[in-house]
């Protein structure tokens, strides 16, 4: 299977640079994956497609202002992106320019925050140790000086409103460097409407890393390696999902991060296990889904692992035809763009 099989042409003007307001007024393409039938709706109409007893699973991760600008002890400037936290005061980071971050090099971010490069960690990443010269904790400090790491394809600098807009209304647990973007379309009112209809809403946590934007550089899809990401499935979520599967009720994933978490947490029979683990599960056509019955997702980049995942769920030809229709109809693409419901 070739990566080029997942290519499509997208006019640059269809890449959304800002979200719509209110969130649930974005457009919604509804795709029946069995028949290929497409409907064009507004996102808040999702209520009409869900029914009492459906289990809607959301990712409650919260994006941190993970983009930091510092000054090296040599005088040069450096940009840091926090990736994951392996220790109390240590973070694995990506850096620009990475070649300047040699072992032992010191970085100053302001009068209160410094760091030193401890070791290399592969693919241009570094492990750095932070030192805070105040009584503030680390997260409090980066809330002051950090920037929201907007995806590179948005091609603009962060604005103050991105602190709220690039965050789901159910974001609770800090640790992501990218938003679970399918969740950006939900409002508090819409969630309440779903609950009142009898839809059961449960959460998992997967802290989205920069690997979500990692380009596929190999020719054959099967040769690509996903980055590991840590996830957590609460006990009540696992119980509710397993009960729904036993009773023939639907499990609906809000986004590809939820999909990968549930499919990773399930055994071969489809029973989801509670607890914390990590996954580098790569879902592409040929994968047999064990848990999810329907998927809410955004429109994804050409040749991306996310496009391959939705193609695995709905069929490559169905998805590429739907994307052609979305382009023809002027849908907005990527993180701040419109949504699909695939059932």
UniProtKB/TrEMBL annotation:
<comment type="pathway">
    <text>tRNA modification; tRNA-queuosine biosynthesis.</text>
</comment>
<comment type="subunit">
    <text>Monomer.</text>
</comment>
<dbReference type="InterPro" id="IPR036100">
    <property type="entry name" value="QueA_sf"/>
</dbReference>
<keyword id="KW-0808">Transferase</keyword>
<dbReference type="GO" id="GO:0005737">
    <property type="term" value="C:cytoplasm"/>
</dbReference>
<comment type="function">
    <text>Transfers and isomerizes the ribose moiety from AdoMet to the 7-aminomethyl group of 7-deazaguanine (preQ1-tRNA) to give epoxyqueuosine (oQ-tRNA).</text>
</comment>
<dbReference type="InterPro" id="IPR042118">
    <property type="entry name" value="QueA_dom1"/>
</dbReference>
<comment type="similarity">
    <text>Belongs to the QueA family.</text>
</comment>
<dbReference type="GO" id="GO:0051075">
    <property type="term" value="F:S-adenosylmethionine:tRNA ribosyltransferase-isomerase activity"/>
</dbReference>
<dbReference type="InterPro" id="IPR042119">
    <property type="entry name" value="QueA_dom2"/>
</dbReference>
<keyword id="KW-0413">Isomerase</keyword>
<keyword id="KW-0671">Queuosine biosynthesis</keyword>
<protein>
    <recommendedName>
        <fullName>S-adenosylmethionine:tRNA ribosyltransferase-isomerase</fullName>
        <ecNumber>2.4.99.17</ecNumber>
    </recommendedName>
</protein>
<dbReference type="GO" id="GO:0008616">
    <property type="term" value="P:tRNA queuosine(34) biosynthetic process"/>
</dbReference>
<dbReference type="InterPro" id="IPR003699">
    <property type="entry name" value="QueA"/>
</dbReference>
<keyword id="KW-0963">Cytoplasm</keyword>
<dbReference type="Pfam" id="PF02547">
    <property type="entry name" value="Queuosine_synth"/>
</dbReference>
<keyword id="KW-0949">S-adenosyl-L-methionine</keyword>
């Amino acid at each position: 299977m070739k990566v080029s099989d997942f290519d499509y042409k997208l006019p640059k003007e269809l890449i959304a640079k800002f979200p719509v307001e209110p969130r649930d007024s974005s457009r919604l393409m509804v795709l029946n994956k069995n028949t290929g039938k497409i409907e064009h709706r507004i996102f808040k109409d999702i209520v009409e497609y869900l029914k009492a007893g459906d289990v809607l699973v959301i990712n409650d991760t919260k994006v941190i202002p993970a983009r930091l600008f510092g000054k090296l002890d040599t005088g040069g400037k450096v940009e840091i992106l926090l990736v994951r936290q392996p220790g109390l005061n240590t973070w694995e980071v990506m850096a620009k320019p990475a070649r300047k971050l040699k072992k032992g090099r010191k970085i100053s971010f302001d009068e209160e925050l410094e760091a030193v490069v401890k070791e290399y960690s592969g693919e241009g990443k570094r492990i750095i140790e932070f030192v805070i010269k105040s009584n503030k904790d680390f997260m409090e400090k980066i809330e002051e000086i950090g920037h929201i790491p907007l995806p590179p394809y948005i091609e603009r600098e962060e604005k103050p409103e991105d602190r709220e807009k690039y965050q789901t209304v159910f974001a609770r647990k800090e640790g992501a460097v990218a938003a679970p973007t399918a969740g950006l379309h939900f409002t508090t009112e819409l969630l309440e409407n779903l609950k009142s209809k009898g839809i059961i809403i449960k959460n998992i946590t997967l802290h989205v890393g920069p690997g979500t934007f990692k380009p596929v550089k190999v020719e054959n899809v099967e040769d690509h390696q996903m980055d590991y990401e840590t996830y957590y499935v609460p006990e009540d979520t696992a119980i509710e999902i397993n009960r729904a599967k036993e009773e023939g009720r639907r499990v609906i994933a809000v986004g590809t991060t939820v999909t990968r978490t549930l499919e990773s947490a399930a055994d071969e029979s489809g029973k989801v296990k509670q607890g914390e683990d990590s996954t580098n599960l790569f879902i592409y056509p040929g994968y047999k889904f064990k848990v999810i019955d329907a998927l809410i997702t955004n429109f994804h980049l050409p040749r991306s692992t996310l496009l391959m995942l939705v193609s695995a769920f709905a069929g490559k030809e169905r998805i590429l035809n739907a994307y052609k229709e979305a382009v023809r109809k002027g849908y907005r693409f990527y993180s701040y763009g419109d949504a699909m419901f695939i059932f």
